[in-house]
From TrEMBL:
SUPFAM superfamilies the record matches: ATPase domain of HSP90 chaperone/DNA topoisomerase II/histidine kinase, Homodimeric domain of signal transducing histidine kinase
Descriptive protein name: histidine kinase
EC number of the protein: 2.7.13.3
Primary gene name: phoR
Coiled coil: none
Cross-referenced SMART domains: HATPase_c (SM00387), HisKA (SM00388)
Catalytic reactions on record: ATP + protein L-histidine = ADP + protein N-phospho-L-histidine
Enzyme class: transferase
Pfam family, one: HATPase_c
Keyword entries, A-Z: Kinase, Phosphoprotein, Transferase, Two-component regulatory system
InterPro entries, per database record: BphY/WalK/GraS-like, HATPase_C_sf, HATPase_dom, His_kinase_dom, HisK_dim/P_dom, HisK_dim/P_sf, Sig_transdc_His_kin-like_C
Length: 422
């Protein structure tokens, strides 16, 4: 279906181009000093509800449709330069005259995020006058012919990610649900047999069964949330999030998480109240909540807490300084720091893997092992960086770098406005 639709759209382009070609020589004679062909190609491409490119015989990118700019944003250069795309372009350009058989290629980008693009390339020979002057060869006459390659792009990322997630979900869920499910079945058999008439054992077993059922529920909720986050990871968030508002919500969530526990959550407002980032406010709040929950859970089982020392968690936001860990662009660093037991250095590199848990604390703390994986995917979607620093006995600091939105002074209202690139 996709290929047929692309072929139809390609036919629309060529049909309109041929209709316009017949008028080019006449227009050229009427106004030889003016660029009469440049609007034609761009106007035709602008009319198409598809992501399309036009490449000339010297591999120059001549025209990009508006939809291609919107859908693929900053990835167009990576797509065109990709070895698989260039190899297929070689094949199409080498076709004999009159052979317009389209070539298809799948381009897979891994950096900065996964993107799978299906490209359909078709070569056509058309008058050079259809190209902007800047894209023509030197001393090209108005009646000369040129070779163009029309490229239809179709984003298959969602379909590929959905397929991977389905496979991963079945594998992970079946593995992680096996233990609590086996426990439930064992207690049910006991209640139906030896403990059928033992009220004390029934009460104890039912409490354990409720805990195991809640564990399965939390695991499924985390898996579903992780799947949703991964589905959106290649879609950059477009809304502006005021960090001062985000930190107000962090204070509310922190108070709820620490209620009734020997835990203090200190939320320090951003240094600059005008700071904003392009993001999904709900997801960014989820990042902070996951980090605070981890800090509380693992700190409460530490020897310091058992000795009576309260758990202290601090949430801060500062402007990013020059650091090899962060990009050179202007940004902020959101940090969640605790005074917990710390994490051995050998585990730090694997903390964001799904279901990975530090062996020493995994037995003492219930969890799915998905919290930091969710954090990593959300941060990646926001174009940020996630770094964990920790030392045994000295606590843990989780740092998140996010790009700042530029501020432009609004002299008419004597204030600042955030400029969000679209």
């Amino acid at each position: 279906m996709v290929g047929a639709a692309m072929a139809t759209l390609g036919g629309m382009v060529l049909g309109r181009m041929r209709a316009s070609v017949s008028r080019v020589p006449v227009l050229a004679r009427r106004s030889p000093s003016k660029e009469v062909s440049q609007p034609c190609l761009k106007q035709v491409m602008a009319c198409l509800p598809a992501a399309m490119l036009v490449i000339n015989e010297t591999r120059g990118l001549c025209v990009v449709s508006k939809m291609a700019e919107q859908q693929f944003d900053g990835d167009l250069g990576s797509i065109v330069r990709h070895p698989a795309f260039q190899a297929k372009l070689d094949v199409v350009l080498a076709q004999k005259a009159g052979n317009t058989q389209p070539g298809r290629v799948r381009v897979i980008l891994d950096i900065p995020r996964l993107r799978v693009v299906q490209a359909v390339l078709q070569k056509q020979t058309l008058p050079a006058a259809l190209l902007p002057i800047s894209m023509r060869r030197e001393n090209t006459s108005p009646n000369a012919q040129t070779t163009l390659v029309f490229v239809d792009l179709y984003d298959e990322t969602d379909a590929v990610v959905a397929e991977r997630q389905h496979t991963d979900f079945v594998a992970f869920a079946s593995h992680e649900l096996r233990t609590p499910l086996a426990a439930l079945l064992g207690f049910i058999e006991t209640l139906q047999g030896p403990a059928a008439d033992d009220p004390v054992a029934q009460k104890e077993f039912l409490e354990i069964m409720a805990q195991q059922a809640k564990r399965m529920q939390n695991l499924l909720n985390s898996l579903l949330y992780l799947s949703r986050v991964q589905m959106q990871e290649h879609q950059k968030p477009r809304e502006a999030v005021r960090l001062v508002d985000l930190f107000d919500q962090c204070q509310t969530e922190g108070d709820l998480l620490a209620a009734g526990l020997p835990v203090t959550v200190d939320v320090q407002p951003p240094e600059n109240k005008s700071w904003q980032v392009a993001g999904d406010e709900t997801q960014l709040l989820q990042v902070v909540v996951n980090l605070v929950e981890n800090a509380i859970k693992y700190s409460l089982v530490s020897e310091k807490t058992k000795a009576g020392k309260p758990v202290s968690i601090t949430i801060t936001c500062q402007q990013a300084e020059a650091d090899q860990r962060w990009p050179s662009a202007p940004g902020i660093v959101l940090s969640v720091t605790d005074n917990g037991p710390g994490i051995p250095a050998r585990h730090l590199a694997r903390l964001t893997e799904r279901f990975y848990r530090v062996a020493k604390t995994a037995a003492a703390v219930q969890g799915s092992g998905l919290g930091l994986a969710i954090v990593q995917h959300i941060v990646s979607r926001h174009g940020g960086r996630f770094v964990v620093e920790s030392a045994v006995g000295q606590g843990t600091s989780c740092h998140i770098w996010l790009p700042l939105l530029p501020l432009v002074a609004d002299h008419s209202s004597n204030c600042h406005q955030t400029v969000l690139q679209t």
